[in-house]
């Protein structure tokens, strides 16, 4: 039987199972990630962090705010002064501390979604209410990272911000070139 011949309810159930399993996997994976940067004498991959790619910064971070190594390189690229570096590290550190605190809430919500899905009868209203909570939590995280970006923008000069934007664009294009064309599976 092909996917298109299955009754709609079966397809919805399969999709819901995938969402619940994904939520549980994300919660479990984030529980194993160490907080903070890797020790200076250990490479990032050995510290349990992926090498490169958008996930390097974590789910709530702006790409250049998320990882100390990337931030350090960007500050080097724009010849940031010691005073600028100190201010930016403080801004980014505060934002990352708050993000770590919110991670526990994200994990708790993902676990609740998995529990709702595992019930003999899935309560659509409870699932929707929980989805709304997850959306609000994501919005709070996004607002905090945007606030941090604005605070950092006040520390840097317009020229430095432009250099960072160009550097990020170049790195993104290089990553896309290495990745190659993305093929989408056919339905």
TrEMBL record:
One of its GO terms (cellular component) is periplasmic space. Residues 1-27 form the signal peptide. Transmembrane segments: none annotated. Residues 92-119 form a coiled coil. It holds the Pfam family LTXXQ. CDD domains: CpxP_like. InterPro entries: LTXXQ. Residues 29-54, 168-187 are annotated as: Disordered. Residues 43-54 have a biased composition (Low complexity). It comes from the Bacteria. Keywords: Coiled coil, Signal. This is Spy/CpxP family protein refolding chaperone.
């Amino acid at each position: 039987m092909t996917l298109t011949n299955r009754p709609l309810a079966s397809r919805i159930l399969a999709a819901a199972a995938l969402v619940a399993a994904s939520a549980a996997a994300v919660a479990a994976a984030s529980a194993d990630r160490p907080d903070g940067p890797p020790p200076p004498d250990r490479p990032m991959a050995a510290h349990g962090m992926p090498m490169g790619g958008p996930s390097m910064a974590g789910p709530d971070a702006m790409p250049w705010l998320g990882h100390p190594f990337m931030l350090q390189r960007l500050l080097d690229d724009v010849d940031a002064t010691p005073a600028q570096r100190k201010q930016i590290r403080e801004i980014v550190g505060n934002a990352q501390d708050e993000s770590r605190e919110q991670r526990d809430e994200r994990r708790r919500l993902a676990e609740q979604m998995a529990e709702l899905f595992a019930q003999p009868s899935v309560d659509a209203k409870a699932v929707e209410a929980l989805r709304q909570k997850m959306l609000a939590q994501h919005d709070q995280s996004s607002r905090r990272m945007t606030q941090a970006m604005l605070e950092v923008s006040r520390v840097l000069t317009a020229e430095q911000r432009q250099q960072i934007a160009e550097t990020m664009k170049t790195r993104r294009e290089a990553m896309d070139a290495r990745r190659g064309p993305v093929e989408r599976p056919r339905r």
